[in-house]
Amino acid sequence: MLVIGLSLDLPVLAASLRPLPRLSVDLMLVVALPPIAALLAVLVIRPSEESAAGILLIAACPVGDIANAYTLLARGSAARSLSLNALTALVAPLSMLLVFSAYSRFGIEHRLLAVPPGELAVRLIFFLLLPVSLGMTLRHRMPRFASRIIPTVTRLTTFGILLLLVLVLANPASRPDNISGTIGISAVFLGICIALCSALLPFLNRRPGEKTALILCLPVRNVGIAALVAVSLLGQTRMAGVAAVYFALEVALFLPFAIWLGRRPRNAASS
After folding, report:
1. Do 221 and 95 touch, CB atoms closer than 8 A?
2. How many Cα neighbours within 13 Å face the side chain of 113?
3. How many domains, in total, are found in the chain?
4. For residue 12, what are the domain limits?
5. Distance (Å, whole) CA 33 – CA 26
6. Which of 59, 53, 58, 55 has the alpha carbon at shortest distance from 113?
7. Tens digit of pLDDT for each residue in 45-102?
8. Alpha carbon 231 to chain centroid, angstroms
9. For the domain that residue 248 is a member of, what is the CATH number?
C-alpha cells in the first residue's frame, strides 16, 4: 500500500480521475462485480466451507497491487490502474463491511466470515488507508526521496509476499484441505469475473487503455489483505492458504494473458 501511494503522481492521478462519472462507474464495477462473481461461483460449485469462505473473502478485498504490473505489460492505462488500486484500498474499510453484510442477504451463511465490523474497519484503515495516504504525502512533499525509495520498497514488498505465500503453502496447518477444490472455485471465480467485465465493456465509453486496465483490475484481488483478515481477525490460517492458491493460479493465468495483450497491435494506443 505504501508503494501505491509513493507511485501516485498527483497531476497524473488527478487527470485519471476525470471525468468523475466515468471513474465512479469503474470504481463501482471493481468493488461490486467480484463479490457477485464469488457468490455465483459458490452457489454453482458448492465447494467446501473453507474454500467458499476463502473465495468470498478474497472477492471482498480491494484491487491487488499486481494488477498495475499486468496493466503495464498489457500496455493499458497505468494511471487508471493505479487510481482504481488506490481508491479501492481507500474505500475498503466501508466497502468490505458492506460486502460482508450483503453476503448473508443472498443466502450465504459462513461462520468463517463473522468479523466484528469495528475491528475490521480499524484494521483496514491501519493497513490500507494510512499507508496509501503516507505514500501520497511523501510523493507530494518529497518527490526525490519518494522516487529513490520506490525500488527498494517494491523489492522488499515482493520478497515479503512471495515468502509469505511459500510459507503458507509449505505449512500443512495452513494448506487448504482440498487444494484441487480451491483451484476449481478460484478458476470459476476468475472466469465469471472476466465474463461479467467483458459483457459490460461494450456498453462503456472507454479508451482502449482504460478497458485494458478495467478488465485486469476487476478480477485481481489483494491477497495480502485477505491473508491479514483471515489470520489476524478470523484466526483461520487455512483461509490464508486459499488466498495463496488463488494467487498462484491468478499469476499463472494473468501474467501470460497480460503479455499477450501487450503484443497485440490494437492495444498500442493506451493512455
Report:
1. no
2. 26
3. 1
4. 2-267
5. 10
6. 53
7. 888 888 888 999 999 999 988 898 898 889 888 888 888 888 888 888 889 888 888 8
8. 18
9. 1.20.1530.20
